[in-house]
Input
Amino acid sequence: MKIQEADAKSLLLAQGLPVPPWKVARTPAEVEAAARTFLDAGAGRVVIKAQVLVGGRGKAGGVKLAGSAVEAAEVGAQILGMDIKGITVRKVLVGAAAEIVKEYYLGAIIDRGSRRITLMASAEGGVEIEEVARQDPAAIHRVSADPLLGLLGFQARTLGLAIGLRDPLLNPFVAIALGLYATMKANDADLVEVNPLAIVAERALDGTATQSLVCLDAKITLDDSGLARHKGLEALRDLDEEDPTDAEARKLGINFIHLDGTIGCMVNGAGLAMTTMDLVKHYGGEPANFLDIGGGARHETVAGSMKLILEDPKVQAILVNIFGGITRGDEVAAGLIEARGQQTREVPMVVRIVGTNAAEAARLLAAAKFETATSLDEAAEKAVALSKGAAR
Ligand code: GDP
Ligand code: MN
Output
C-alpha cells in the first residue's frame, strides 16, 4: 500500500527524523491560509506540492514555490485539479520553502536478493535519480542490515562517507539512516525513500547561515500483509486513488493481480494459480491475471471474480481451474452460471473442476452448456486455442 507524502512524513517524524513542518490543503483558500501561517512565522517563500501516489511530481509541475499568500492561492489553484500521470490532484502539501544547498538520495528497501533490508544512498539525489541509477549505477551506494543485529552505526557512517558527507553533517546522516531503518521495521514497510534528503541553509536574522540535513520528500510503501499488525495504518489508505479493481478484490477477499496477457484465470489456491499460469504459457498463451479465489469460496465470490476478469478488455478467453477441497465444485459451478447471467460481453471459457462435488459441478455445467475439461493440460491447451480465436 502506497501512502501520501504527508502521511509518510508523519511516520518519519514518529521515528524522530528531521522533517520540516507542513499542512495539507484541499482548496486554494486553505492553501492561502496555510501559506500565511508559514510566512508569518518567518518563511521567505512557501512550497506547494501535489499529493498524489506517483513519483516525478516535480517534473510534472506539481511542486511549486510561492512568495506570498495570494501567490500561494494562485499556485494552489493551478495544482489542485491538475492531472499527474492520470491522477487528479485533490490535495496539496504546504510548507516553508527550504533553501537547498545540495540534494542527496536515501532509501531503504527489502532487497529480495540478499533477503535483507538494504539502504541505498547517492550524492546525485533529486528528480533525476532514476536516470542516475540507469546511467551510473556506481553512484548508488548500498549497505545491508543484518537481520539479527539491525543496521549498525558503522554501516550508516560508511554510507554517509561514501556519498561525501563529513562533519558536522555525518552524525546527523547516521541518525537519519538509522531512522529510515527503524521506520521500515516499525511499520512493516517495503520501501522508505527520502529524495531529496537535502542540505538546507537556515539564515539567522544577522544573515549568517547554518546548514542541516532534512527530509524534504518522503515516500513509503507498506507491506499489505503486514497491515493487520498495525491497526492505525489502514486509515492511511487513500481511497481517492485506489485502483477500483484492487478495492473490489479486497472487498471480495480474493487475491487479484493484473497481468498483460489475454487469458483470464480463475483458480483456487496460490500455488495452483501459479501452476495454471505456467501451463497457459507452456501452451503458448499469456495470462491476463493472477487470481486466487481462496479456500471455500462461495458462489457470490466466484461471480464477483468473473466480473473483475471480464472488466479487463484484453481478456479473450477464460480458464477456470478448481481443485475442490474445502472449496465445493458445485458452489463454483453455481457461481459461474450466476456470472454468465450477468455478463456484459461474451468470452469463450473452459472450466476444469475436480475434487469435492466435481460430479455435481459437471452436471450443472453440462446443463448450462459450459465447455469443460478434465485435466489441467487439456484445459490450458483449450483456453489458449480459444484465446487465439480457434473454433470450438
Ligand atoms: P517528486 O518530484 O515527486 O519527487 O517531489 P519532491 O518533493 O522530491 O520535489 C521535487 C523537487 O522540487 C526537489 O528535488 C527539489 O529540487 C524541489 N523542491 C522540493 N521542495 C523544495 C523546497 O522546499 N525548496 C526548494 N527550493 N525546492 C524544493
Ligand atoms: Mn522526490
Q: What stands out?
A: The chain has three domains: 1-19+99-242, 21-97, 243-391. The pocket of manganese (II) ion (ligand 2) is lined by residues 195, 217 (CB under 6 Å). The CA atoms of residues 50 and 184 lie 24 Å apart. The mean pLDDT is 95.
